[in-house]
């Protein structure tokens, strides 16, 4: 009797929200049908088998994708540059998919611009304290960083902070709260991230998937 090799199922971690919405058609152009993952969202399923591609998809929070990948619960994932740089995990990032585009900016009230030379104690509110710390350090700016988990744009309006560091797409939310952009820290888009163990054990298969996604992203 001839022994048949069994192909191991690879696990892909995808974040909920905009990146997932934009990733599904990109995978489809790469010949990888993740329609089952899209349909499963309505039933709130979080683990979706895609047997025709020897894949399993995990639907997780965007900030959790790098943890799943680094610790081997997922072999590879899709995560925003903002999340990857904030967490600084030990991962490979072989491909920028060009989806989920936005910018990470410093912003301040239009009517109370900051004078960095005159104001001794500056406070920055953000969901990204590590990126903010590195940015300020590179500029030689001394400031207190206040970590928040949402509604960052109201922090200067109620006196919690002088400036904010946050993600913007069109900038409309900033305008509604009478905030102006001071500078851009990062151009952000979603990237493929791969665990180091998975890259060693399943490198050929992951490389093939990445190559297909690269061709699809360039179309």
Question: Can you walk me through this structure?
Answer:
By secondary structure, the chain is α/β, with parallel strands linked by helices. The protein has two domains: 10-100 and 189-217, D-Maltodextrin-Binding Protein, domain 2 (3-Layer(aba) Sandwich), CATH 3.40.190; 102-187, Periplasmic binding protein-like II (D-Maltodextrin-Binding Protein, domain 2), CATH 3.40.190.10. Helix content is 31%, strand content 31%. The chain is built from eight helices and eleven strands. The strands form two sheets. A six-stranded mixed β-sheet has the order 2-3-1-4-11-5. It starts with 9 loop residues before the first strand and ends with a helix. The relative contact order is 0.19. Residues 1-5 have low confidence and may be disordered.
Helix content percent band: 25-40%
Query: Cα-atom Rg, whole angstroms?
Result: 20 Å
Number of domains: 2
Q: Per CATH, which architecture of the largest domain?
A: 3-Layer(aba) Sandwich
What amount of the residues lies in strands?
25-35%
Return the CATH topology of the largest domain: D-Maltodextrin-Binding Protein, domain 2
Mean pLDDT: 92
SSE pattern: EHHEEHEHEEEHEEHEEHH
CATH class of the largest domain reads Alpha Beta
Question: How many DSSP E strands?
Answer: 11
Choose one word for the global shape: elongated
Largest sheet: 6 strands, mixed
Number of helices: 8
- Which ranges are low-confidence, i.e. pLDDT below 50, for 5 or more consecutive residues? 1-5
CATH homologous group name of the largest domain: Periplasmic binding protein-like II
Q: What is the spatial order of strands in the main beta sheet?
A: 2-3-1-4-11-5
Distance between the termini: 46 Å
SS-derived structural category? alpha/beta
